[in-house]
Amino acid sequence: FVESFKQVFLALCETRDMAVADVPSLTTEQRDVLLFDWGRGYDVPAHVQAQLEGKSFVEALNAQLKTQGDHIALRAGHEVMSYRQLDERSDALAAALEHKVQPNDRVAIYAARGMAQIVAMVAVQKLQGTIVCLDPSLPDARIEHMLRDSAPSIVLWDKALPPQAQSFECVE
Q1: Which pLDDT belongs to residue 45?
Q2: CA 18 to CA 114: how far, in whole Å?
Q3: Confidence class for position 163, pLDDT limits 50, 70, 90
Q4: Residues 74, 94, 127, 69: what is their CA dihedral angle, to the nearest 10 degrees?
Q5: CA distance 35 to 55
Q6: pTM score
Q7: Cα–Cα distance for residue pair 3/6, rounded to 1 Å
Q8: Contact, 25 vs 7, CB < 8 A?
Q9: How do strand 154-157 and strand 106-110 relate by DSSP bridges?
């Protein structure tokens, strides 16, 4: 924060006619970290990357299902789910939604992080929909803005439905 403040202060001192919105607030090092280091995710081993090359998420999941079907795919606390269970549960949800979700439709998922959220995300991927995750811990105004901005064709929810979603088609 101090480095950014110094960067802004020095830039304003050098060019007094510059609009504040145009003043760079990041140092070169900070900019490089944001652009090249953050958001890169975990490094995927080369042999895994080779197996996934050119495959969609659903194709990669199906490949895992064939070779690792009974192995653990997800773990949340004491709860575990195998690749086969994930496939079965996501298939069941996808089947229930297939007449409501078309490819590229936005589907809001209002659920805390956990198994239900992942199953819903996989089901939406199987239907070629676009996932809009709504975290129940977000302030109501933020959820309302996200719903209004994304205009999902449907809202999937786990437990208590937010009042902001009342104007959308909702599926529990």
Answers
A1: 76
A2: 48
A3: low
A4: 40
A5: 26
A6: 0.69
A7: 5
A8: yes
A9: parallel
The span from the CA of 156 to the CA of 23, in Å, is 42
Q: How many CB atoms lie within 10 A of CB 162?
A: 18
pLDDT of residue 161: 58
Res. 151 pLDDT band, cuts 50 70 90: very high
**Structure-token match 């145009």, residue found:** 22
Q: How far is 139 from 158, CA to CA, in rounded Å?
A: 17
Distance of CA 89 to the CA centre of its chain: 19
pLDDT, position 4: 77
Q: Check residues 56 and 159 and name the one with the higher pLDDT.
A: 56
100: how many CB neighbours lie within 10 A of its CB? 14
Q: Which residues of 34-53 are buried (b: 16+ CB within 10 A; e: fewer)?
A: eeeeeeeeeeeeeeeeeeee
User: How long is the chain?
Assistant: 172
Reference 158, options 105, 120, 107; nearest CA is 120
21 Cβ partners below 8 Å, 6+ apart?
none
Containing H/E element for 157? Answer: strand 154-157
Mean pLDDT (whole number) for 137-159: 88
Instruction: Specify burial of residue 10 (Cβ count, 10 A radius: 0-12, 13-18, 19+).
Output: exposed
DSSP conformation class of 22:
G
